[in-house]
C-alpha cells in the first residue's frame, strides 16, 4: 500500500504594513498645545484691543467719559443716601417714647424702672423727669406759673423718656406694647409719623436710585453696542479674510469682546474718580453743616468694596454690550465666493 502523503502546509505570507508616503503626515495637536494657543490668542486680543483704543484716542476718550458719567451719577447718589441713613440714625432726638407713669408712683420706683429699661438691648438710654421737674419746666414754657402755683396739687404725672436703639416703625410699635405691660405705666405716647415719613423718603430714594442705575446701565450697554458695531464695520474686510483662511467665529469675536470690556472697565475707573472728586468738593460744606447741627458725623466716601466693584461691574456691562453687538453683526459678514 502506498504511504499516506502528509499534506504540506502552505507557506505563510508575510503581511507587510503599507508604507506612509513621505509627502503628507497627519498632524496631531495635543491638549497642552491647544491651551497654549488659546491663552496666547487671549493675550494678543487684549493687547490688540488696548492698541486700537490708544490709536483712536479721541473717540475712545469720548466713549469712556460717557460711560463714566452714566455710572458716576447713581453711584454718587447712593453714597449720599448712605450718608443720610447714618446721619439720621445718629440723631439723639430721632424717635423716643414718652412713658407716663401713674400719679401715685414715687421717685424711687420711677428711677428703678428707668434703670431696668435701660438695661434692655432694644433701648439705648432713658431719661427720668420727676413730677417736680415736669411742673417747673411747664411753668417756664407755658407762662401759666401763677395759675399752676394756685393749684392744690401737682397735676403732672412722672415721666420716663425712652430712646430706642432702632428707629424702625415696627420695632418702635413692639417696644411700645412691651412697655405698656408694666403695672406702673399709665400711658405710652409714641410719635412715629415723622419716623415713618423719613423711612418712606429713604425707601423712595433707594428705589429711585435702583431705577436710575438700571436705566443708565442699559445706556452703557447700548453705548458699547454702538461702539463695537462701528468697529466691526470698519474691520469688515479683515474679518472676511480671516474667515476665508479658516478663522472661526470665536477667533474673530474675541478681540471685540476684550474691546468692550476695556471700554467698560476704563469707564468704571473714571466713574470712581469722578465720584471721589465730587464728594471731596461737597465734603467741606456738608461737614460744616453737620457741625452746626451738633453732629459728630462726617461725610463718608466710597468704600473699598465699591472701589473694586464699580469698575468690574462696568467691565461686565461693556462685555455684555460687545457680546450683543458681535452676535448681531458678525454673522452678517461672510465671504462671497
Automatic annotation (TrEMBL):
Protein topology in the membrane: Multi-pass membrane protein
InterPro entries attached to this UniProt entry: ABC3_permease_C, FtsX, FtsX_ECD, FtsX_proteobact-type
Domain spans labelled ABC3 transporter permease C-terminal: 213-326
A GO CC term assigned to this protein in UniProt: cell division site
Similarity comment: family membership: Belongs to the ABC-4 integral membrane protein family. FtsX subfamily.
Function summary: Part of the ABC transporter FtsEX involved in cellular division.
Oligomeric form and interacting partners: Forms a membrane-associated complex with FtsE.
Protein name per UniProt: Cell division protein FtsX
Amino acid at each position: 500500500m502506498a504511504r499516506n502523503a502528509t499534506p504540506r502546509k502552505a507557506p505563510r505570507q508575510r503581511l507587510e504594513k503599507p508604507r506612509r508616503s513621505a509627502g503628507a503626515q497627519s498632524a496631531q495637536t495635543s491638549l497642552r498645545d491647544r491651551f497654549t494657543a488659546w491663552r496666547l490668542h487671549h493675550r494678543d486680543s487684549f493687547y490688540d484691543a488696548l492698541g486700537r483704543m490708544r490709536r483712536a484716542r479721541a473717540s475712545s476718550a469720548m466713549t469712556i467719559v460717557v460711560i463714566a458719567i452714566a455710572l458716576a451719577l447713581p453711584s454718587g447718589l447712593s453714597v449720599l443716601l448712605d450718608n443720610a441713613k447714618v446721619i439720621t440714625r445718629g440723631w439723639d432726638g430721632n424717635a423716643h417714647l414718652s412713658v407716663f407713669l401713674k400719679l401715685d408712683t414715687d421717685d424711687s420706683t420711677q428711677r428703678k424702672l428707668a434703670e431696668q429699661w435701660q438695661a434692655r438691648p432694644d433701648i439705648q438710654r432713658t431719661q427720668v423727669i420727676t413730677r417736680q421737674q415736669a411742673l417747673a419746666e411747664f411753668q417756664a414754657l407755658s407762662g401759666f406759673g401763677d395759675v399752676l402755683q394756685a393749684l392744690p396739687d401737682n397735676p403732672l404725672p412722672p415721666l420716663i423718656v425712652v430712646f430706642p436703639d432702632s428707629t424702625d416703625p415696627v420695632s418702635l410699635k413692639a417696644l411700645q406694647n412691651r412697655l405698656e405691660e408694666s403695672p406702673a405705666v399709665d400711658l405710652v405716647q409714641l410719635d412715629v409719623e415723622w419716623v415713618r415719613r423719613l423711612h418712606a423718603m429713604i425707601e423712595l430714594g433707594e428705589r429711585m436710585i435702583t431705577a436710575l442705575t438700571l436705566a443708565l446701565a442699559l445706556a452703557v450697554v447700548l453705548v458699547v453696542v454702538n461702539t463695537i458695531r462701528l468697529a466691526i464695520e470698519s474691520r469688515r474686510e479683515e474679518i472676511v479674510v480671516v474667515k476665508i483662511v479658516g478663522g472661526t467665529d470665536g477667533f474673530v469675536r474675541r478681540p471685540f469682546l476684550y474691546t468692550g470690556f476695556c471700554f467698560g472697565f476704563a469707564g468704571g475707573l473714571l466713574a470712581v474718580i469722578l465720584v471721589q472728586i465730587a464728594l471731596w468738593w461737597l465734603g467741606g460744606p456738608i461737614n460744616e453743616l453737620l457741625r452746626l447741627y451738633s453732629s459728630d458725623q462726617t461725610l463718608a466716601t466710597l468704600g473699598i468694596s465699591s472701589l473694586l466693584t464699580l469698575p468690574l461691574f462696568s467691565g461686565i456691562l461693556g462685555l455684555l454690550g460687545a457680546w450683543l453687538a458681535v452676535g448681531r453683526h458678525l454673522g452678517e459678514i461672510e465671504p462671497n465666493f
